[in-house]
TrEMBL record, chains A, B:
Function: Catalyzes the conversion of 3-deoxy-D-arabino-heptulosonate 7-phosphate (DAHP) to dehydroquinate (DHQ).
Protein name as catalogued: 3-dehydroquinate synthase
Entry keywords, A to Z: Amino-acid biosynthesis, Aromatic amino acid biosynthesis, Cobalt, Cytoplasm, Lyase, Metal-binding, NAD, Nucleotide-binding, Zinc
Source lineage: Bacteria, Pseudomonadati, Pseudomonadota, Alphaproteobacteria, Hyphomicrobiales
Binding annotation for NAD(+): 118-122, 142-143, 155, 164
Pathway membership, UniProt: Metabolic intermediate biosynthesis; chorismate biosynthesis; chorismate from D-erythrose 4-phosphate and phosphoenolpyruvate: step 2/7
Amino acid sequence: MTKQAADAARVERILVPVPLGERAYDILIGRHQLCEAAGVIAELAPGARAAIVTDDNLAELHAPALESCLHQAGIATTRLTIRPGEASKSYACFVELCDGLLAAKIERNDLVIALGGGVVGDLSGFAASVLRRGVRFVQIPTSLLAQVDSSVGGKTGINSGHGKNLIGAFHQPALVICDTALLDTLSEREFKAGYAEVVKYGLIDDAAFFDWCEANWRRVIAGGPERDHAVATACRAKAAIVVRDEREDGDRALLNLGHTFAHALERLTAYNSRRLVHGEAVAIGLALAFRFSQRLGLCPGQDAGRVAAHLTSVGLPSRLQDVPGGTGSAAEIVEAMTQDKKVKRGALTFILAHGIGKSFIAPGVPADEVRRFIESELAGA
Amino acid sequence: MTKQAADAARVERILVPVPLGERAYDILIGRHQLCEAAGVIAELAPGARAAIVTDDNLAELHAPALESCLHQAGIATTRLTIRPGEASKSYACFVELCDGLLAAKIERNDLVIALGGGVVGDLSGFAASVLRRGVRFVQIPTSLLAQVDSSVGGKTGINSGHGKNLIGAFHQPALVICDTALLDTLSEREFKAGYAEVVKYGLIDDAAFFDWCEANWRRVIAGGPERDHAVATACRAKAAIVVRDEREDGDRALLNLGHTFAHALERLTAYNSRRLVHGEAVAIGLALAFRFSQRLGLCPGQDAGRVAAHLTSVGLPSRLQDVPGGTGSAAEIVEAMTQDKKVKRGALTFILAHGIGKSFIAPGVPADEVRRFIESELAGA
Ligand SMILES: NC(=O)c1ccc[n+]([C@@H]2O[C@H](COP(=O)([O-])OP(=O)(O)OC[C@H]3O[C@@H](n4cnc5c(N)ncnc54)[C@H](O)[C@@H]3O)[C@@H](O)[C@H]2O)c1
Ligand SMILES: NC(=O)c1ccc[n+]([C@@H]2O[C@H](COP(=O)([O-])OP(=O)(O)OC[C@H]3O[C@@H](n4cnc5c(N)ncnc54)[C@H](O)[C@@H]3O)[C@@H](O)[C@H]2O)c1
């Protein structure tokens, strides 16, 4: 028995439905799903043509396999490749991609397939949403972050000079395929960064899953059933929140746990992935959100300590001091948090926590309070 | 009594609802609605800020009045101005407008208001649909074409080198205000061009309205209750079709009567408004659609004759020969019709007619048949 056959035999495919009415779709999770999934795509859009959008790294590693599976299933493909990295979520790449899809004569009944991390997914999902006012879109996320977060929920978009993800659309995919074997080629650093988003779901409202993460994180990284379980748990959690609040008018904001800090840190490091990638910023943001909650007297110090300890043992950053090259002053960090938003009477909306698994939306947190907290963090208190 | 007061007293405000479920909205029609409408906008979005998008012409003619009405109603405004003309429906203007809206700190609960013709409406509606993944959008159409067609139905978008309106979104407005007095400053040429779209609704499925147009078109141009009636009839007709088929999966294609020809002519005249504006291209397209239907033995010659005669008496073009500078050969026209589409086995989808008010969707019209028809038109047969 080959390793691949063994893998396939060992792991069942997990199906997570996302019941969004006429926009409902499935997430298929498991090792070596690619060829089986190609058949599902063919059922979804018989006779359609598919434009596969990917980046240079994935073009080499996984695009050829996907293409041959799709061809076997009777789907003709063209491939459009972008440069890896956050810089591709730009107006310029968006325009180029739209024109590339038009040149490939992708029409209303055809498909756009994203094969890549969150960058490929966000950019190509946005292009799919506006191409001929909307074509169907399939996500094949290849990074852990994309499998557990960005590929689910329909948020797509690009960055502007004014901030991240400020231009985009809610465009739900028609299907999401999480082939966890694709993650085997991901760098350890990117894998761990994605893992911060896995932990987030435990911290939001599932203390038992956080316990499980503490016990099983090594096996998640190694691959095997634990990895699939972690991806499925994350997708289920995200799907449940998205179904409650598709367009982020309420509850969905919980998914931003750690992200107000994270976005400021990404901005202050100029989205330079050599210094910080999104998931690393989220790791620091999670630890900060818990310590901030502790400081406000909302959350036991023990829980804040466990969060930071778990991130550290995995090898993730958890303090502002962990950012290579530094972050700037407290005032600069607060300024970066509010840059693209009107601050209502000097107050910010934060996701805070009463403890692990007990997060909540806190509107009206005074910006001054945030600044003083960051000052104490920078002082290493 | 001033002229304005007399106007206001004479004409009731007409309300046309567009019952699209959670995307339902109203169209308000009448002379001198602007200040009353500002109050409706304020009710829609209490405390919101509004970005008024307009073009240089309207900035001078009507923006100041709108702004002072909005300020009186308690809505703060900023103004973003584009250059008039189809060339502004470009990627470059789209990017500039998005960044302008971000610089003005327009947020999720704020408004984008389009004050202008179809160009301003299409461009700013698209920008509103993607700004922070969607903000509310109010249409204040100022051209006849925009009042009777482009402001209703939620289609927004820009052009690509590959063709018109290929990049965009379905983004329904929250409110449409058709102040028919705004049309008093419109050039006669633009007014008549918009009138072609009014006639179209009669030709699609309302023979009695076509009769009415033949009898009343002079009063529509002059202003007065007939103009309001024409705008309201057109809006009602469009709303009914849009409600049946919001995303153009079926019936809505009827609105394309005359447009397959029109788009080809616009393309062949390089969207140069000195040669041809959209409504003029539509006028020729309507006449061609009826003569083509006649040639195919579907439509009585008398009806095709009436269509052309009405357009001519209004002062609109109705033949390919009416295009200043010519259109190119039949083969070039057919090529321009199909350029941005896969042609399925040499066949095109057309809107044809069994007579005035009896239009239907005809898939599978052989491209050869179209070419021969155009040849005979060019030969003046
Ligand atoms: N849409 C959403 O809801 C949402 C949610 C969270 C994050 N995001 C966005 O996601 C982006 C980050 O996503 P990301 O972390 O996946 O970044 P990414 O797409 O840049 O991928 C990270 C790196 O890993 C490489 N890579 C991906 N898969 C690989 C594989 N299987 N093997 C080898 N290399 C591989 C990529 O080429 C890239 O160099 C950010 O832009 C963030 O804003 C979006
Ligand atoms: N979204 C849709 O459903 C839809 C439907 C039909 C057409 N369209 C689009 O609409 C556009 C054409 O619209 P349009 O004909 O209004 O063109 P336009 O917006 O370019 O306006 C035509 C000209 O009239 C001027 N103008 C407008 N209102 C005026 C007024 N009250 N007084 C003086 N001048 C005025 C404008 O400044 C411009 O120079 C095309 O881009 C077409 O694709 C969209």
